Amino acid sequence: MVDIRIPIGLMFSIIGILISIFGVITMSDTAMYQKSLGINVNLIMGVFMLIFGLVMLWFARRKKK
Questions:
Q1: From 2's CA, which of 19, 36, 40, 58 has a CA 20 to 30 Å away?
Q2: The whole model's pTM is what?
């Protein structure tokens, strides 16, 4: 059977990396984050998505052993 955790982990890891990089690049743009009360939502959600993706990949790798 195909383990669904591998594609989900890859997808969340790649998107998390991209959103985190975007959040770091736009960190000094205060007008962009004015609606979110000055919180860099891109960076925070990117890190959360990256962590979730890595956990899914870790579970998939642990299951194979």
A1: 19
A2: 0.85
Long-range contacts of 4-11 (CB under 8 A, 24+ apart): 5/56, 5/57, 5/59, 5/60, 5/63, 6/56, 6/57, 6/60, 8/53, 8/56, 9/53, 9/54, 9/55, 9/56, 9/57, 9/59, 9/60, 10/53, 10/57, 11/53
Instruction: Report residue 27's pLDDT band, with 50, 70 and 90 as the boundaries.
Output: confident
Q: Where are the alpha helices (DSSP H) in the chain?
A: 5-25, 41-64
